[in-house]
Specification:
By secondary structure, this protein is low in regular secondary structure. It has two helices and no strands.
Length: 100
């Protein structure tokens, strides 16, 4: 499959903002999946590195999901997520039980 560089360049500079509450259940579920005995997250406790992927999930109607499993981004265009950024206030890690 050839890359359409013009289409890829059209995404440069775009951003998307989502707000979520860092609930304790997703880290517990991931710990169980990984067969880990992590203690439950306490309100205000730092979320383990990279576990922010458990939050900020897109809520997309089934009819709007493309063949690649991602939300469609226009007529016939599916998302190819190459890079994501998470911006925390003052570069601090997310905290359990708080909006991020």
């Amino acid at each position: 499959m050839a890359l359409d560089m013009a289409a890829l360049r059209s995404w440069i500079g775009r951003s998307e903002t989502r707000v979520d509450v860092a609930a304790a259940v997703p880290p517990r579920a991931l710990a169980a999946t990984l067969d880990r005995d992590d203690p439950p997250q306490q309100p205000g406790e730092a979320i383990p590195p990279c576990w922010h992927w458990l939050y900020f999930l897109p809520l997309t109607r089934q009819s709007q999901i493309g063949a690649d499993g991602h939300p469609q981004r226009g007529p016939g265009r599916d998302q190819n997520r190459c890079h994501d950024h998470l911006h925390h206030p003052n570069l601090r890690p997310g905290r359990s039980g708080r909006p991020a």
